[in-house]
């Protein structure tokens, strides 16, 4: 599975995941952290990131909510 995170200007981060990988809170938080690091390299003119989420479990998981508050 290919997981892609993007903004209005294009792709910021993509990761090819092994077959049968479930994107849970742990995997999602890891991807968000990697994307944030890459974002500051690719888009240095922007100083903050705003994420738009739906109510999928990986977005509403306690670990994900805590991660969003810390960063």
From TrEMBL:
Pfam families registered for this protein in UniProt: Transposase_1
Gene Ontology process terms (BP): DNA double-strand break processing; DNA integration; double-strand break repair via nonhomologous end joining; mitotic DNA integrity checkpoint signaling; replication fork processing
Single Gene Ontology MF annotation: histone H3K4 methyltransferase activity
Gene3D superfamilies registered for this protein in UniProt: Ribonuclease H-like superfamily/Ribonuclease H
One GO term describing the cellular component: nucleus
Protein name from the UniProt record: Uncharacterized protein
